[in-house]
Design brief:
Helix content of chain B: 25-40%
Order of helices and strands of chain B: HEEEHEEHEHEEHHEHEHEEH
Shape of chain A: globular
CATH architecture of chain A: Orthogonal Bundle
Structural class of chain B: alpha/beta
CATH superfamily of chain B: P-loop containing nucleotide triphosphate hydrolases
Number of strands of chain A: 4
Distance between the termini of chain A: 27 Å
Largest interface: A-B, 39 and 44 residues
Helix content of chain A: over 70%
Strand content of chain A: under 5%
Oligomer: heterodimer
Number of helices of chain A: 14
Number of domains of chain A: 1
Number of helices of chain B: 9
Strand order of the largest sheet of chain A: 1-4
Radius of gyration of chain B: 19 Å
């Protein structure tokens, strides 16, 4: 057993360092240098690839807009652009909530049903003659309540995965909406709700102002405040987060409450747009929201994703639908296209993971 | 040997008569342990000797069934990792407890972010990012840790760099004791070297360092003192040197001298 220069006295350490490092320097001959240069180039190539993948969803959206605008004159009209934004606003808001959930490795399947229930609650209260302020607060509070139930059952009930909890509430909340409304559409929404849901300033829909406002709030929450750090820490390594003293349970419950609140805002916009509440609103909206977050480039495995991902993903879906509509493509075909785009986005995430592994090796070689 | 040890001032950390049972198994069977400022203590022993249980009790992950823990001669209660951290004890477990999706700065400050203002609930305070970055840079420079970039996520770093982030994070926040569980187990020669240098720098700054390791070469190199455990008891306390190497090995495996 050879143990050169262990520390029986302080000085022997230095000696060992010199002895170890010198022969290695001599051994670094020409092929070694060439190999290192190659590793260096690979490092930059991989880095470029990762940057491209990170910017990928936005580039694809820009490309999509350019192609559709060039091939479809109607698309460029301000009325149509307003339509696109208006049709995208609910998905965008749901995607903002879903983003927070997905960053913590979760999923919220209940948001579509929550849209229905909150619109029904609002319509019933308005029918009973309550003021518009009460109607708006009740719509949003319904979302918060459903979100809280999701989070509380998931965290305190120690359910292994939020998929199960929110699958249950997807069913139950829709059921409550059907029961409360007798399964029928209830007409009538306060003027202010109608305004928020359907009015436009020039061509720009007010509903998209709501999107922008909520996006700014989520942006501040995720990037500027302590809570945002906790969010990403919980998503990156829940055990380590707990050991670091981060209130993991509270963060998780808050995430589902915010996703529920987002669904409440979704319900508000849908109810305003249609001047009604209905137990059939928001069907499959949860899948649109999840698709938007993934298409936008957030990681389904959690820990990574930002506001830009949610908005870009939602716009991509909205523009694909709009373009296919303008070209009178069958609605069935739209579903296929969206499905393919989701698969491409997930595959891009796989490629990204692969490149990151290669990058780690290249970087270690470079800094050795 | 023990005469030399008792010459020193009160230990920074001392554990007295610690007992910990898991069901019918006695993991710690009345063990005593002391570490002094500016000392590297190696905790040795075969698998199941109770090393990990002991450091978990000191770092607040487990609670002793009986026995006492004192810091600077004053008995303390350690019931959670937070308690240990507040007393100036930081632990680096083998899994490193890093956040792969965050950069080194955010890893340093996860759970103890610098933020304000104070009257706002903690979760809604605004991050003081510049201060956290400056402080992290200062610590990394002090320990001569070189990282590719402070903005890159830790998940994209090599094993040695990740270990360096975890150890320097512990070092930055530990005012008294740093505990390292197998700090070189997953590393190559060159990267191990860097971590060992980091341990020595920590010692030179006056921190007490406890190292749990199976790598005898590394122990012999950095440890000022080695405590050997077997079946939850201390079976020997040795100053590592060429002469005592075989003594330590036979203490670990339990062979008769």
């Amino acid at each position: 057993m050879s143990r050169p220069g262990f520390a029986d006295e302080g000085g022997s350490l230095m000696i060992e360092q010199v002895v170890v490092s010198e022969p290695e320097n001599e051994a670094r001959s020409v092929p070694e240098a060439a190999r290192r240069r190659l590793a260096f180039d690979r490092y930059h190539l991989l880095r470029l690839g990762l940057v491209a993948l990170r910017a990928g969803p936005l580039l694809i959206l820009v490309l999509l807009i350019a192609v559709v605008a060039a091939t479809t004159p109607v698309f460029r009209t301000s009325t149509n652009l307003g339509n696109v934004l208006s049709q995208t606003s609910v998905i965008s808001i749901l995607a903002l909530g879903q983003l927070l959930v997905i960053v913590t490795r979760g999923i919220d399947l209940s948001v579509g049903s929550t849209i229905a229930l909150s619109s029904v609650v609002g319509a019933l209260l308005y029918q009973d003659g309550h003021s518009s302020a009460i109607v708006i607060v009740a719509i949003l509070a319904t979302g918060v309540a459903v979100g809280f139930v999701n989070g509380a059952i998931y965290v305190w009930g120690r359910v292994p995965h939020p998929f199960i909890v929110t699958l249950a509430t997807l069913s139950a909340v829709r059921g409550i909406a059907l029961w409360a409304s007798d399964g029928t559409l209830i007409f009538g929404m306060p003027g202010s709700v109608q305004k928020i849901g359907s009015d436009r300033i020039s061509w720009f829909p007010i509903s998209y102002f709501v999107v922008i406002g909520l996006a700014l709030l989520v942006l501040i929450l995720t990037t500027k405040l302590v809570w945002g750090r906790w969010l990403y820490a919980v998503g990156g390594n829940p055990d380590a987060a707990r050991r670091a003293g981060i209130p993991v349970s509270r963060v998780l419950i808050t995430v589902y409450v915010l996703s529920g609140l987002a669904a409440g805002f979704g319900g508000l916009l849908v109810a305003g747009l249609t001047n009604a509440g209905s137990p059939n609103y928001g069907q499959l909206a949860e899948l649109d929201a999840i698709a938007a977050v993934i298409i936008g480039g957030a990681a389904f495995a959690g820990g990574r994703g930002h506001v830009g991902n949610a908005l870009v993903g939602a716009l991509t879906i909205g523009i694909i639908r709009n373009a296919l509509n303008l070209h009178n493509v069958d609605a069935f075909f739209q579903l296929i296209v969206i499905g393919v785009v989701i698969l491409l986005a997930v595959e891009a995430d796989v490629v990204r993971g692969y490149l990151e592994n290669r990058f780690r090796v290249a970087q270690a070689a470079r800094h050795a | 040997m023990s005469a030399v040890l008792s010459e020193r001032a009160a230990a920074v950390l001392s554990v007295r008569d610690a007992i910990k049972r898991f069901g019918g198994v006695t993991a710690l069977d009345g063990i005593d342990l002391e570490v002094h400022a500016g000392e590297v203590l190696a905790l040795l022993g075969d698998n199941g000797a109770g090393k990990t249980t002991l450091i978990k009790c000191v770092s607040g992950a487990l609670r002793l069934d009986s026995g006492s823990i004192s810091m600077d001669g004053v008995e303390v209660a350690i019931h959670s990792p937070r308690d240990a951290q507040a007393l100036g004890i930081e632990t680096v477990y083998q899994d490193l407890a890093l956040f792969d999706n965050l950069n080194p700065i955010d890893n340093f400050y996860a759970g103890r972010e610098l933020a304000g203002p104070g009257w706002v609930p903690r979760s809604l305070r605004v991050l003081r990012r510049r201060r956290m970055r400056d402080a992290t840079e200062e610590v990394l420079e002090r320990f001569q840790v070189v990282l590719p970039q402070l903005d890159g996520t830790v998940g994209l770093m090599s094993g040695g760099q990740r270990q360096a982030v975890a150890v320097s994070r512990a070092a930055a926040f530990a005012s008294k004791v740093v505990i390292l569980d197998e700090p070189t187990a997953a590393l190559g020669v060159r990267e191990s070297r860097k971590v060992l240098d980091l341990i020595l720098r920590l010692r030179d700054e006056g921190t007490a360092v406890i190292v749990v390791s199976h790598a005898m070469d590394h122990v012999m190199e950095v440890a000022d003192r080695a405590v050997v455990m077997r079946r939850g008891r201390k079976v020997g306390e040795v100053v590592p040197s060429a002469e005592t190497y075989h003594e330590i090995v036979s203490l670990i495996v339990g062979g008769a001298d």
